[in-house]
């Protein structure tokens, strides 16, 4: 995936006026691990699964800069997302999608997710992800068309089939 140019949000959205995705670098791992610990803490504590060291180490073990993007707003770190080929089937796997608390609730997550889903749709590729039970992020994914494939007491595995766009007709055509 190449660098995405700055995008401007639609007027009705609450997203910041400009954001970018830049390819992650190996040195981003600690910033991303810390963000994960902050963002996931409440959900993992609610499930009795928060371990301060483990949450960061798991991110370090899974961090793949080649498939991870850093989200920036006005040049500052605002979050991250991984979007990799799905190891278990066709399509993509979305993971490690974290926004800094101050960047949440403003439409940024929707804007970033829409960009990634548009890329998958252009390839007619499904997208899978896993979200923690009870996470507010599940509503974002459901609004984007994800449905539940399976779940257990901790995780909800979701999938979104590609949305195929119909060919555009030339103006004035019959």
Describe the structure.
This protein is of the alpha+beta class. About 30% of the residues lie in helices and about 30% in strands. The chain has an eight-stranded mixed sheet with strand order 1-2-3-4-5-6-8-7, with helices on both faces. α1 crosses α2.
Please give the structural blueprint:
Layout: E1 4-7, E2 19-23, H1 29-46, H2 52-62, E3 68-73, E4 76-85, E5 92-99, H3 108-122, E6 127-132, H4 137-143, E7 147-151, E8 155-160
Parallel strand pairs: 5-6
Antiparallel strand pairs: 1-2, 2-3, 3-4, 4-5, 6-8, 7-8
Helix pairs in contact: 1-2
Class from secondary-structure proportions: alpha+beta
As a percent range, the share of strand residues is 25-35%
Low-pLDDT segments, ≥5 res: 1-13, 168-174
Query: Which H/E pattern describes the elements?
Result: EEHHEEEHEHEE
If you average the pLDDT, what whole number results?
Answer: 88
How far apart are the termini?
38 Å
Number of strands: 8
Radius of gyration: 17 Å
Strand order of the largest sheet: 1-2-3-4-5-6-8-7
How many individual helices?
Answer: 4
Main pleated sheet = 8 strands, mixed
Q: Assign an overall shape.
A: globular
Helix content: 25-40%
């Amino acid at each position: 995936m190449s660098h995405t140019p700055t995008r401007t949000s639609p007027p009705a959205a609450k997203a910041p006026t400009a954001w970018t995705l830049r390819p992650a670098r190996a040195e981003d791992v600690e910033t991303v691990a810390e963000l994960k610990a902050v963002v996931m803490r409440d959900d993992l504590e609610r499930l009795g699964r928060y371990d301060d060291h483990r949450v960061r180490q798991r991110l370090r073990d899974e961090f793949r800069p080649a498939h991870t993007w850093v989200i920036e707003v006005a040049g500052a770190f605002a979050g991250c997302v991984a979007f990799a080929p799905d190891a278990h089937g066709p399509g993509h796997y979305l993971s490690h999608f974290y926004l800094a608390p101050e960047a949440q609730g403003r439409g940024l997550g929707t804007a970033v997710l829409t960009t990634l889903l548009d890329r998958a749709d252009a390839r007619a590729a499904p997208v899978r992800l896993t979200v923690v039970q009870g996470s507010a992020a599940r509503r974002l994914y459901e609004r984007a068309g994800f449905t539940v494939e399976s779940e257990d007491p901790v995780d909800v595995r979701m999938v979104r089939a590609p949305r195929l766009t119909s060919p555009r007709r030339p103006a004035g055509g019959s």
